[in-house]
Amino acid sequence: MPAQPADARAVVRAAARWLALLESGGASPADLERLAQWRASSSQHENAWQQAQLLRQRFADLPGELAMATLDRPQPSRRALLKQALGVAALVPTAWLLGRQLPLEAWRADVHTAVGERRQLTLSDGTRLQLNTDSAVNIDLAAQRITLVRGEVAVDVPTAVSLALQVPYGQVTLSGAEVCVRLFDESCRVSVAAGRATVQPGRGAATTLQAGQQASLRATGLGPVKPLDELLLGWREGVLRLDDRPLVDLLLELRRYRPGLLRWAPELAQLKVTGTFRLDDTDRVLALLAASLPVEVHARTRYWVTLAPREKRA
Question: What is the reported pLDDT for 125?
Fold first, then answer.
């Protein structure tokens, strides 16, 4: 993702702090008036505030966990407690907004999923859709088109139906086929699980991918056609399958299914892992890693988790 301008980052941080102030319960009428003035002073401020409000839904239970973390500490003054709450509660929203930049177009899409959520639906023409975590699509059956706005989608189209799957880098046309498409920052991966699909880049010639093939699509064209990696499609059954892969591969995927921050020490990245992991319980996956690898899981809250090498004990 391209770096944001410094002024945009400052606006995001300000919105996160306003959100934290409201969540703390310490906002005065004067604070609310200043918030209203801040929002009205700039369209950029208002847009950041709307993103923060959407974010609020994802961290609805965060203040309670933060409160529990302070129960065994000496009681500070109200001002000190509010300052502490603002400092910690703003940290996760700020990191989240800066790292993920929840786009309003994704939340305005016809169908979308939150982080950690997967969704299935069948359209009136018989087409079946599966949306992975943090994904969004727009549906226009009159134009026989689905637009992938964010994330990842699996599309299973009946033989009698012809459908175009629009992405920022081109278009995938299919009939009587099943494809999975995942968006990245500057490309998308097109995987054909059944049938065949025609991939038309924004520039360049169209290419037909057969069942068992995948390729990376960019605005400049289609990359090399490769054999389908079936392990990449396990999310449709709610699992992530790995066979002697670096731990970093698993952690990068897990991060897509968890709200908040998931970090790890660099020396853990190349540890090898094999197994089938359920995506609907990432806390359990982390516990399994700690039980089977020389890894310790440190959780300040559910939204702030760090993996470190296990300390050797005498």
Answer: 94
